[in-house]
Design brief:
This protein is of the alpha+beta class and 304 residues long. 44% of the residues lie in helices and 16% in strands. 24% of the residues are buried.
């Protein structure tokens, strides 16, 4: 379930963001912030655990927005345009504070609280059917603030082991990939995985080693497909024509660029990086796999 920040606050935020530099490329498929990790574990938690978590967060939001409003009252804008934006910013802060106070009052009276994480990785509370998207007024200090909140909450309730925010996540490495040899009039003999990844060879010599090469390619593509599917579920943007694999020096990882902005994954995909892969065929296989369509693509065609 998704919701949006109030229209006025969103409009003001867009004005301020428009003046910011273009967003930098970011690494995808990493451990989310610790507060998101806790929220994801609260889906099936007791109502009191969810209510306690929401109460802590709302109390902190009220404190932070109050400080932001007080700080903005001390600012003196230079120029009429800047002054108008500052006035709108203060009005937005006041509206958000009023809304947060309403949620705090509701939390005193009920434990009817749902905790969810939306596709953009933001924590969402539903209190008696009303949505509250957790949104801090500034990014600076957010990680430390959320860590403090999590530590306070975890002194009251049992929490799972939390991963370091931004660290690599466990990768769904493809299990043993099955397949078989076949003959094709167009491509000659080749090995094809059960998922449709095919490698064509000039003849049937060295079948064991050639099969191993193709099996490794199929495993890499299966792994990449699973990670890309998760990225899409979490709101990441994949632009298939921009997808490419680059070597990362030093640690045996490859960088997978997924869109024009340069957002990327870091995965161990050695076979895809060292084999002379027909990348257009690999892209077709990945895109069709993402759409739930099974296809057979010859991703490697070699005489060696």
């Amino acid at each position: 379930m998704r919701t949006r920040v109030s229209a006025v606050l969103l409009a003001v935020l867009m004005v301020w963001v428009a003046a910011s530099p273009a967003m930098e490329p970011r690494e995808l498929y990493v451990q989310p912030p610790v507060m998101v990790q806790v929220a994801e574990g609260l889906t099936e938690a007791s109502s009191s655990a969810r209510a306690d978590f929401a109460a802590l967060v709302v109390e902190e939001l009220i404190e932070v927005y109050t400080q932001e409003l007080e700080h903005s009252g001390l600012e003196r804008a230079r120029g009429a345009g800047r002054e108008r934006r500052l006035v709108r910013w203060r009005q937005a802060m006041e509206m958000e504070l009023a809304r947060l106070h309403r949620f705090r009052r509701a939390l005193v009276m009920t434990e009817d609280v749902l905790v969810e994480v939306d596709r953009q990785g933001q924590v969402l509370f539903m209190v008696e059917g009303s949505p509250l998207l957790v949104s801090w007024p500034r990014v600076a200090g957010q990680a430390a603030r959320e860590m403090d909140l999590v530590q306070r909450y975890c002194t009251l309730h049992a929490c799972p082991a939390l991963g370091e925010a931004g660290a690599a996540r466990a990768m769904p490495r493809a299990a043993d990939v099955g397949g078989a040899w076949s003959m094709s009039q167009m491509h000659g003999p080749g090995w094809e995985s059960e998922g449709g990844v095919r490698c064509a060879f000039a003849d049937l010599r060295d079948r064991a080693s050639r099969e191993e090469r193709c099996r490794a390619l199929a495993a890499d593509l299966e792994t990449l497909s699973a990670v890309l599917a998760q990225v899409v579920r979490e709101g990441g943007r994949i632009e298939w024509r921009m997808l490419r694999v680059e070597d990362e020096p030093g640690d045996g990882m490859q960088r997978v660029i997924v869109n024009e902005r340069g957002d990327y994954l870091r995965l161990p995909l050695r076979a895809l990086s060292v084999e002379p892969v027909n990348w257009q065929a690999a892209l077709r296989w990945l895109e069709r796999r993402a759409a739930g369509v099974r296809s057979t693509e010859t991703v490697l065609s070699t005489r060696s």
